[in-house]
């Protein structure tokens, strides 16, 4: 039996920061941001809202959607690069708030690929029979590590959280294949000092190749053909990077999630947020084959082919 998704939830802060707002903050334009990245606006958490608050909200919704309670959870994994403080982990903070007293808890740091790393880790525990239910959350408050004077990065990022509850699903459904990878030699291209420092062009080149390769690799590993893919959920980093994956899979435009337009790049929360939106919108139905693929600072990457449904 495969591990799959039993429930899903997301949280987006209310405050919207538009490209026009950014025009007043740095030397940029709505036209530049829109055409180079596909972003029109992003959400920004207020000062009082911590990463753990957003993670908690998304987790509560995912548990409800899965028809499970906090006591059912055996393990909590939170993917993030913006924990409230280096320790305790966000996983421990929400373990207490949820009342998931039986659950082990840890954060994973794999930047924008973190949610893929989290889901694959959950799969190992579930399919080995060690744990029944694993809560996986992706959450970021990137606004607190964004240099709002640096136009290279300020236009890209946003805040938010997404969560899934994973467990055993019916035969044929769930995670069909995955790929995880890292190249520490590329760490210098994307890292946090006080703020996010990024060599955009280098990251772009890496991402275009890696996202497209990984998308195809997981389909082959699953013994499927490109034609079998129903929907693509790429990490929402840049529409031009996402398009490269879509085109390699030969998918029509409407079969790819484009929440980037509204939320920008929310790092490890971008994939679960996009997944939750598409499921809610009825774009992903039971037995659809979806490909999720992400890349990020590290450099890291990860992809999953999954047949949707419990
Ligand atoms: O989750 C992973 C996080 N990182 C990423 O996904 C980033 C990947 N990289 C990218 O998405 C793109 O490289 C960017 C969106 C960051 C930049 O787009 P680009 O097409 O690679 O632009 P560029 O860096 O080649 O810059 C082109 C021009 C430059 O001006 P000159 O040298 O041609 O005169 C930049 O100075 O655009 C200028 N520029 C801007 N102009 C207006 C750079 N940022 C901005 C800006 N507004 N915000």
From TrEMBL:
Annotated Gene Ontology cellular component terms: cytoplasm
The molecule here is called Beta-ketoacyl-[acyl-carrier-protein] synthase III
The subunit field of the Swiss-Prot or TrEMBL record says: Homodimer.
> Which HAMAP family does UniProt cross-reference here?
FabH
Segment ACP-binding: which positions? 236-240
Q: Might you name a Gene Ontology BP term for this protein?
A: fatty acid biosynthetic process
UniProt KW keywords: Acyltransferase, Cytoplasm, Fatty acid biosynthesis, Fatty acid metabolism, Lipid biosynthesis, Lipid metabolism, Multifunctional enzyme, Transferase
Which transformation does this protein catalyse, written as a reaction? Answer: hexanoyl-CoA + malonyl-[ACP] + H(+) = 3-oxooctanoyl-[ACP] + CO2 + CoA; pentanoyl-CoA + malonyl-[ACP] + H(+) = 3-oxoheptanoyl-[ACP] + CO2 + CoA; malonyl-[ACP] + acetyl-CoA + H(+) = 3-oxobutanoyl-[ACP] + CO2 + CoA; 3-methylbutanoyl-CoA + malonyl-[ACP] + H(+) = 5-methyl-3-oxohexanoyl-[ACP] + CO2 + CoA
Matching Gene3D superfamilies: 3.40.47.10
Q: Where is the active site?
A: 112, 235, 265
For domains, the record's comment is: The last Arg residue of the ACP-binding site is essential for the weak association between ACP/AcpP and FabH.
Which residue range or ranges hold the Beta-ketoacyl-[acyl-carrier-protein] synthase III N-terminal domain?
A: 106-184
Give the family from UniProt. Belongs to the thiolase-like superfamily. FabH family.
The gene that this protein is the product of is fabH
Query: What's the Enzyme Commission number for this chain?
Result: 2.3.1.180
Keyword Plastid among UniProt keywords: no
Localization per Swiss-Prot or TrEMBL:
Cytoplasm
Task: Quote the function comment for this protein.
Answer: Catalyzes the condensation reaction of fatty acid synthesis by the addition to an acyl acceptor of two carbons from malonyl-ACP. Catalyzes the first condensation reaction which initiates fatty acid synthesis and may therefore play a role in governing the total rate of fatty acid production. Possesses both acetoacetyl-ACP synthase and acetyl transacylase activities. Its substrate specificity determines the biosynthesis of branched-chain and/or straight-chain of fatty acids. Catalyzes the condensation reaction of fatty acid synthesis by the addition to an acyl acceptor of two carbons from malonyl-ACP. Catalyzes the first condensation reaction which initiates fatty acid synthesis and may therefore play a role in governing the total rate of fatty acid production. Possesses both acetoacetyl-ACP synthase and acetyl transacylase activities. Has some substrate specificity for branched chain acyl-CoA, determining the biosynthesis of branched-chain of fatty acids instead of straight-chain.
